[in-house]
Specification:
The chain has 62 residues and is an alpha+beta fold. Helix content is 42%, strand content 23%. The protein contains 1 helix and 4 strands, in the order ββαββ. A hairpin with a 4-residue loop joins β1 and β2.
Length: 62
């Protein structure tokens, strides 16, 4: 998975969807799940590069 923080983009060049007999609902769920994984990768990369402070509520980015 490649993450470009400058453009807030993520791309998984190893992922592809094989045409099958999946219903539209199954395809939507599959693509939403992959989208969630990509957005999480962006968030993880973004927050690991920011400096933060610890307080009682957890880490807070500066």
């Amino acid at each position: 998975m490649e993450v470009d923080l400058g453009n807030l983009m993520a791309y998984d060049s190893h992922y592809y969807s094989v045409p099958s007999q999946q219903s539209r609902e199954e395809l939507v769920n599959e693509f939403l799940q992959k989208g969630i994984e990509l957005v999480q990768a962006i968030a993880d990369s973004l927050f690991t590069t920011l400096t933060s402070t610890e307080d009682v509520d957890g880490r807070t980015p500066r």
